## 1
Amino acid sequence: MAFVHSKSTRVLVNEISASAKLRSVTAANSRTMSQTTVFTDDGERFIPGLKAGTMTLEGLFEDNALYADLQDANGTDNSLLVTAGINGYAVGSPVTIAVGDLTSHGINAQVAEAVGFSVESPADETVDLGVSLHDETAETATADGTGVDNLASSASGGVGALHVTAASGTSPTLDAKIQHSTDDITYVDLITFAQATAATSERQAVSGTVNRYLRTSWAIAGTTPSFTFVAAFARR
């Protein structure tokens, strides 16, 4: 696998494609360790505890939809859904998915520099590493996406994210799903997102077995409908 330059990174915040406003994104996870050392031990001993994660965004200030979304997020539970495409959102590309609450939000102004802002949010549970299942492109008709091969199934569930960044047409509707398969031929539903009629975002968690292959499937209706969206899934 080749190295990836940071300029290829793309970031979605809720229903907003935020890449053109951001200069830095950090998605970090960790796990607390509880010490179990006793007098008879020769060294420290630990058992793993709770998972944790943090999202940090830094960018250029502009009074636009992104800044308004960040202001609205203040004090609201799980108000920020951030999906970062490390190498864009081409199907199969790695992404990080995190949902959390805004804990700090600052604006930085310096002489001879563009005004910047920073946001920090702890992630609920953790930051999940997964894959993109739909690039940030427009769709106008019902279709199935390309399957992504994990080489094997997994047993601990996962989280799916949907970011609809644009919608147009008369009474447009988008019914998006994440499906899984054992053979890349027969797919069954894994996650069904709420019907979208405008720009929106959603995250869902599932438990149990996630089969080897994953894809996105979508149904679009309305008069001259068009939806631009990204879908992603992270196994656990």
## 2
Amino acid sequence: MIETVKGIKHTDSGQFFLLAGPCAIEGERMALEIAEEILRVCDKLKIPYVFKGSYRKANRSRIDSFAGIGDEKALKILRKVHETFGVPTVTDIHSAPEAGMAAEYVDILQIPAFLCRQTDIVVAAARTGKVVNIKKGQFVAPESMIYAINKVRDSGNDKVMITDRGTMFGYRDLIVDYRGIPDMQQFGVPVVLDITHSLQQPNQSSGVTGGRPQLIETIARAGVAVGVDGFFLETHPDPANAKSDGANMLKLDLLEPMLTRLAALRSVVRSF
């Protein structure tokens, strides 16, 4: 299905595909610089690539947390990334009316994990005809995601994929259950593993989400081993000063060595 996304390259390489970019669109220059570097690495490794960026962050712990630079401004930057580099783009939506608006600018509409059961949002995204990426809720069993998939299919759209981002384990931790990857692949859709949000540590007393980015490659290697179709990750040149989710993002200069190792591991796994 990923090969149907307009502008995507290297779909015959046998590699996993990648949805990657900053957590939030902070500005045009920042978005273009990140996109250019990720594209360079993905072209080198023949990895199909989609640029990710949130035009607005609706799910914030505190009311004073950064939420965005303005919807239209950020969406226009996503379009600029596509026009500049020819790469497809993905962004998340937070209500049914946003589906049509965002679909004018991006190629893939993403349903956030907390909203994966919201029928009106899922259906609205499906009816745009765009690819729909539904993040598995931290509270949802993998086998239950068939119902979210069917909401898209029953709306006349078969372009759907699922992203696992861990399951809540206590109040401030997430655990990836790798049994869920093959379970969800049985539904006939690509299954993506979010290797940065899976390492979040939400609900901190400070109101700022924590994370364990030193384990990003560990999570990813296990994903390759079980045959995940794609990866989702957030990256930034300076995570410590990122305006959103800096605590669990991958530093941009670590991306190439990590993807190089993961691509090599993928080739080994595919040989079995």
## 3
Amino acid sequence: MSTSIDQAFVKQFQREVHEAYQRQGSKLRPTVRVKTGVVGSSTVFQRVGKVDAQSKGRHAMVPVSSSEFSSVEIPLLDYYVGEWIDRLDELKTNIDERQVLANAGAFALGRKTDEIIIESGLMKAETVIGDGSTGLTKAKVLAAFEQLGANDVPDDGQRFAVIGWRQWSDLLDLPEFASAEFVGDDVLPWRGTQAKMWLGTMWIPHSALPLANGVRTCFWYHKSAIGHAIGQEVTSDITWHGDRAAHFVAHFMSQGAGLIDGRGVIKLPCLED
């Protein structure tokens, strides 16, 4: 096999891994505040509190507002996925086989990205609506909606609700969510199950939300409330091992996540019987 074929395989494989991760690897990365190119073992996300406007007398000094500044430090951790690829020409030149292997590594890192965001960010919030004795009911949804408004969480199209598939089915029983009479033909959930805009929020079903004692923890949050730090984007390194007559492919990334503003995240425990 010529050297040029090997190099073409390596470059193509690396590109496909990156594209697969961006396309389908992580559901939650686009829903949170992301900082890329972090140098070092951690990074800091800034949080600015509310300030009040004040009046002033004619020719008087403009009053100085005391803004409340705080910061959240997020450590970065390294994650790896490794696999062997035998030096068969089919794996080097067959697009379908190569894509399967690229997707496997990218999706594994994508699942880890979502796990980081959930465990290190969303789960740290303290505001809880409901006690897990019921599913995702209309009353629970409206109570959480009211709480977001009471917390002055911006209703600017950047609210997201991540729920389990059982909770997605619960919502399908609500005419306000699933009927064209309420939402129109263009946003019916029956047209697709990846996401749906409702109540000014993008609702996303997810299969890996925390489940304990038959209760699934769902989340409703604003994009700015969760920080996701990236020191190293998803990368692949491919090396040849003659003793195995195979390439070893190592996928790796360095990421971290954290809760920036607890007022912007609401937990929704839902019963799954």
